[in-house]
Write a structure and sequence with these properties.
This protein is an all-alpha fold and about 290 residues long. It has 13 helices and no strands. It folds into 2 domains: about 50 residues, no CATH class; about 180 residues, MetI-like (MetI-like fold), CATH 1.10.3720. About 80% of the residues lie in helices and about 0% in strands.
């Protein structure tokens, strides 16, 4: 409801954009009527909700196809980028956080905290342009922009086009997860069972992984789920910078074209993904901590 109202109360007329600069007021009025935008807002909302409850997201004003079909067409690039980003972030951030907690107060700990501040402070698009300048324009290691499907160019070309966007998007995610991992493992290292494990002569790596990290897993899993919101916001910017034809780029194009049904459909889809991921994270607590039962 909030998104629906914000779209219609902010300046900008979809009919005027579709009609073009040379259109007359009569032509714009005719387009508004054909789109149903001349009806009262409560009526427009009731019609949209009625279609939504039957599984119909409506038809795009700009692309002239069903919004559900449009989302399905753009889903693969976004899913590939998000999956690779999460894998990179988790594989890098958790070991970093554990090592920083283990060497609390040392140079690695201070370096991680500095990286976390930088990761949260530098905007995604600034980091993207810096990486493009360094890795694409100067060193010529990776493509500047674009996306290649596995079926079209193979796995190597597919990954070459995704590495740079994934690094860009994963920096803030790594900063978030690493910082929470450090805090959680640091708290666990002060518990009695850690001193008992060390007193038994267990190897330090086993103490860190099997005892400290295992007992700090719940807050780490929680922040991974919460970070999906950051990931969704970052996808919109990252796909625009790297010209990736995914849902993020679709969102920007729809906003510029004032394509109400597409914007509403994409936001609903992102909201569903966010809720579903956090539900799965909550359910995973049963396996991470045997004391938790549902």
């Amino acid at each position: 409801m909030l998104v629906f109202l914000l779209l219609r109360l902010t300046p900008g007329d979809p009919a005027a954009i579709l009609a073009g600069d040379a259109a007359t007021s009569e032509q714009i009025a005719a387009i508004r009527s054909s789109l149903g935008l001349d009806r009262p807002l409560p009526v427009q909302f009731a019609i949209w909700m009625g279609k939504l409850l039957s599984g119909d997201l409506g038809q795009s004003y700009y692309f002239r196809i069903d919004v559900a079909t449009l989302i399905a067409q753009r889903l693969e690039p976004t899913f590939a980028l998000a999956t690779l980003t999460i894998l990179v972030a988790v594989l890098v951030s958790i070991p970093l956080g554990v090592l920083a907690a283990w060497r609390f107060g040392g140079w690695l700990d201070r370096a991680l905290m500095g990286f976390s501040v930088m990761g949260f402070s530098v905007p995604v698009f600034v980091l993207a342009y810096l990486l493009i300048w360094a890795l694409s324009l100067k060193l010529e290691w990776l493509p500047v922009q674009g996306y290649v499907r596995i079926s079209e160019g193979g796995i190597v070309l597919f990954l070459k086009h995704l590495i740079l966007p994934s690094i860009t998007l994963s920096v803030i995610y790594i900063a978030l997860i690493a910082r929470v991992t450090r805090a959680s493992v640091l708290e666990a290292l002060g518990e009695d069972y850690i001193r008992t494990a060390r007193a038994k002569g267990l190897p330090e790596m086993r103490v860190l992984v099997r005892h400290a990290l295992a007992n700090a897993a719940v807050p780490i899993a929680t922040v991974i789920g919460i970070g999906v919101a950051i990931l969704i916001g970052g996808v919109v910017v990252t796909e625009s910078v790297y010209a990736i034809p995914g849902l993020g780029r679709l969102t920007v194009d729809a906003v510029l074209a004032r394509d109400f049904p597409t914007i509403q459909g994409v936001i609903l889809f992102f909201s569903f993904v966010y809720v579903a991921v956090n539900l799965l994270i909550d359910l995973s607590y049963v396996f991470l901590d045997p004391r938790i039962r549902y």
